[in-house]
Amino acid sequence: MKKIVLLSILMLGFVSLMGQTEIKSKLDKVTVYPDRALVEKSIKVNLQKGENKFVITDNAKTVTAQNIHFSSSEEWFITSINNEIQTIPEKEVAKRLLSQNAYQQYLTLKAKLDNINDQIMDNDALIKTLSAQRTALGNMKATKNTSEIDTVAIIKTQFNFQRDEMKNINKLLSEANEKQKELSYQKNKISKEIESLVKKHIGSKNLLTTDNSIMISIYSNLSKQNEVLKYSYIVYGVHSGYSYDVMLDENLNKAIFSLKNTVSQSTGENWKDCEIVFSTSNGEYAGYDAELPTYYLDYQQNYTRTLKEVKAMRNNVVAKGYVEEEETAFAVTDGFFSPSEQQNLTLSKEYTLSTPLCIATNEQALTIPLYNLQTKAYFSRFATPKNEEKVFYTALLPDWEDLGLLETACDVYLNNKFISKSFINTSVTGDTMRFAVGDDKNIKVTRKLRKTSPTEKGFLSKDIVETANITLTIKNTKNEEVEISIKDQIPISANSEIKISDVDLAGGELNANTGVVRWNVLLAPKEEKKITFTYTVKYPKGNRVILN
């Protein structure tokens, strides 16, 4: 009778042990934070009036009774919570998680694997025995008494015996080793078939053989059927990080920011068949009504480096944007970014996966696309040949602030070709976000400086005069028209005794405060142009100035 009752209970999908009903939890939602996750689950129970006891299975291995939160009701309340980690046979886990058809396939493959393992053990024992026999045979001596009359005959007989036996053992040993290789191949093949079958049905190639069971006692004021209990807990062992693929398209004048998350977890449970949400908040600190200090507005202080100073880090940093009209794309943000700053997610956002996905425990990290944002992009070529004889390329994004970007790392692509790794730092980016995308090798630029020899001005003069003659050569080797912004400079006197005169800028636009001269050059296909500008410097005899 007891067997019949137990069989009936098993057919209903749960086991009653010592008044406790075992119930499998249903995973409803997982919210993934950078270093943890909030897991939300539910169970459906039948409550009897009075005390009810349940054992809830399939929970994360790190969950304790202290960090579980259950929903509540006016009709019932929880009187106690406890948890216990237990080991479950692998076949029992497979029976719980796989469909009936998949479970039968699993049993068939498992039987084959067990049979092969038995053969491997038997064959391994045979190899060890044959190896021992070969060693013993090799150590045998033909005879101990060479004074016997028939010693030669005995030696010959024993030698032939040893040779034949050694030959036979070597043959058997070779066959056993070959068989072992074949068995190992078959074992590996069937093991992969089992992993593939399991992964297809539960999302992970591993069957978890440990279970953290939650034991709860509920007191109910009345009987209720199919009552839904919701509970949640925080788990650690989660690694989640955000980054962008920035796709710059020169032909369509657009930039696409593709946000993605790379996540892995070792919580002991597989997240599948549920809603998965990625959150940029840290999941630890709640917000509060913060005080706002007085907002004083003043001129922004900008600190820039020259192109020469940032040559080594050119492709690694997102530029601030123009500080002045003459500044290049390499007016970069001060300093480098520490690891802690590379996930400075200043805006708390959540992204819900639109397609089903399994994030399995103890598996390789998954990189998951979350969404795409598009904005206008303009492209500019510029050169500062005094610093470096190259033509550089920059993408300018004037409407970047409408995107609500996270501060995080990014990979930059131009026309589907990878350019560099960079970092989006929204706190220091100006009105226009700028990406340095490398140099254009199809446009050549050179700079040559010719100086006259220092000469005295007049027979009795105490002044020296020098003239600088600078020629910039720009050649377009492309089969299309290009426009380039070229920048050079004339000196500004820091001493009243040094006079600069006879300035010829060859049509360039001068910033009198900085001495920077800019030319916008339009080059036809295969065209070459030269820009020659000059200036004269006069200074007292007995001194020296450097023109460059």
Key structural traits:
548 residues, alpha+beta, 6-stranded mixed β-sheet, 27 strands, 20% helix, flat, disordered N terminus
What report would you give on this structure?
It is a single chain. This protein is α+β, with helices and mostly antiparallel strands and 548 residues long. It has helices spanning 2-12, 90-97, 100-139, 151-202; strands at 16-17, 20-24, 26-32, 37-47, 50-57, 68-70, 76-87, 210-220, 224-235, 238-249, 254-265, 275-279, 350-352, 366-376, 378-383, 391-397, 409-414, 417-423, 433-439, 443-451, 455-456, 463-476, 482-489, 499-504, 509-510, 516-523, 528-540. The strands form five sheets. The chain has a six-stranded mixed sheet with strand order 6-9-4-3-12-13, with no helix packed on it. A hairpin with a 5-residue loop joins strand 25 (509-510) and strand 26. Helix 3 (100-139) packs antiparallel against helix 4 (151-202). The longest helix is centred in the first third of the chain and has 52 residues, at 151-202.
